[in-house]
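Q: My labmate handed me this sequence with no annotations at all. I'd like to see what the chain might look like in three dimensions before we decide whether it's worth expressing. Could you predict it?
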Amino acid sequence: MSLTLHGIGVSKGIAIGKVHVIHRDTLEISRKTLTKVDAEVTRFKNAVDLARQQLENIKEQIPQNADVITFIDSHLLMLDDSLLTKVPVDLIYEHSCNAEWALQMQCDEITQIFDNMEDPYLSARKNDVEQVVIRIQRILHGHTDVESETTMAGLANTIILADDLSPADTVLMQHQGILAFATEFGGTTSHTAILARSLGIPAIVGLRRATPYIKVDDTLIIDGEQGIIFVSPDEHCLHHYQNRQNEQKHFRAVLSKIKSSPTVTRDGVPITLHANIEFPEDMDAVKRVGGKGVGLYRTEFLFMNRHSPPEEDEHFEAYLKVINALQGGPVTIRTLDLGADKQVSDSHVTNCNSALGLRAIRLCLNNSQLFKPQLRAILRASALGQVRMMIPMVTGFQELEQVLSIISEIRKELQKKSLDFNPNMPFGIMLEVPAMAICTDLIAPNVDFLSVGTNDLIQYTLAIDRGDEAVNYLYDPLHPAVLRLIKMSIDAAKIADKPISMCGEMASDSHYVKLLLGLGLRSFSVNPELFLEVKQIINNSNLKNLTKLTNQIMATTSSAKITKLIKNLNL
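A: Here is what I predict for the chain of 571 residues:
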């Protein structure tokens, strides 16, 4: 009998095939009081070493130039983090308890910190901690191999269903020819989801209790865009999705043909289209789609999974990799934006605040140990390519003046040391707080460029936490207030003759590209996997024809009516 299940689509694409269900036994963890504590510490350390060896073995199966190795490295870094390796040892000695219990106590402590984080990307890192802990726990329980890793071979052309999957699992899937995967747990910003999108594997997460309804060797249809699974589909459904598969293959083939063509509207208006990246290794994905510049280089990865901030040279080396990969193309480096939640220090102190607390530039100005090494590295990197510096979450002129003052000091320090930098390196800010969007006309003359960060702009404008399931239904890019703030910012930047871009998720969404063009946006920075789709929409757009419908949209008060008008705009 045919059955339909719903989850969260995290990676586009349609897959049709037999299912393979990965069952992992639930690990029972109970406290035991021990007398031979030294032996227990040795057992724990051996488990950590074996977990490290497992991950190293997985890395050996991946081509060394693969952009996904970073995700495996992030888990390896966790195994070097004292929070996961030293603290459990201390707990074993302190409580004379078994390693499993000590590790779980520490894991619960860490995940509670992540649960309190407001930023969805950072809170999703909890999943990585849990996956590393599960790997160690399985070894402690006598499972010296990881089931999904040892059984993935030989499962080509199947669809994987599991409670959860690690980035290591996901990497192996691509190299073993797995068609798609679905998991009971997980979210859109987990590393597993990000990897699935990067690798082009259709994926659905957050199914919740789907396993009882799916049997081994059932035929599944995975719709990674809609987040729908069809179990044992009937002939009509199967035929429909086979046709859609063929259409998607044709669509991808058409997109590949525009890779080297310019980004220009049908009425001859050139549009700047750059890519968003998170790791230097993401440049492989940018090159695959013909990207020539980076409009948003997130640098948070340098600060994650470690107990002390990165030093200047580590920053510099990471930036240099991107500069070299671009071969003269521009890169906009965003300074640290760790969010409302995590402060890195030598003692690994973590402060949890609301989304209105100490985050982004506020955190950096409060902690020069975090900020100055990064600023020095960006300035040094500016001598080697088209580097632009962008500051997140600026809320007032005082912050801007403080940053510019620090940069001026660093320039003098570099000159004294005879270190090269570009004295005219472009400096800009992100417009993601309504106060700054409203004041774009005032702040634009004081910067070289601006970039709209829609993720936070929408969140703050509508007073909702997009990571809170109870209210995230209110997160609406088409709310009239959001559209007015975007339009206000674009118009003010144009009057000031300052370039303005958009690097938030809204710019990457195919539903909104024509609307943004109609609002006057002429520079987009998007996720690499959506780069060519956005490019095609731009190339097929006529700006003159968009103006009338865009004006109608801006005069509409209802989001539902705006949605209907958007459909007409996209015809």
